[in-house]
Design brief:
six-stranded mixed beta sheet; globular; 128 residues; Nuclear Transport Factor 2, Chain: A; single chain; alpha+beta
Length: 128
């Protein structure tokens, strides 16, 4: 895994958010759908399962599923930027933008497979 840069307003929380994204990517790269789904907000995991008609642990690593681009790039994660605002974080990688929320003891992924759209909210393949 390669990391280009890290900038954020909240020191340790930013690195913790980045760690979760790195763990999420590593789980996807290893085909460990259980671990990847465990890092998703439960509502996001349920939405992914509903949208695909597959259990989350299968859908999240499916190379032809909604996270196909994330699956393809998972082994070569390059984190470009991390932004933290209170209990929310945005992690920008070379191939994806992920959103996280601080929940309980740590960060969980609330949206993945997100693409920026001019003058509109991000379009995300997986979101709560």
């Amino acid at each position: 895994m390669t990391v280009l840069g890290l900038s954020a307003c909240a020191g340790p929380d930013a690195s913790d958010a980045q760690d979760v994204v790195e763990s999420f990517s590593a789980a996807i790269a290893a085909g460990d759908g259980d671990a990847a789904c465990g890092l998703l907000l439960p509502d996001a995991a349920e939405a992914l399962a509903e949208d695909t008609g597959q259990p989350c642990e299968d859908a999240v690593v499916d190379p032809s599923g909604p996270l196909a681009d994330v699956v393809a790039a998972a082994g070569d994660l390059v984190v470009e930027d991390v932004h933290v605002a209170g209990r929310q974080a945005q992690v920008v990688t070379a191939s994806d933008t992920l959103f996280l929320a601080h929940s309980g003891d740590g960060w969980v992924v609330t949206a993945a497979g997100c693409t920026a759209r001019p003058d509109r909210p991000y379009d995300c393949e997986v979101e709560a």
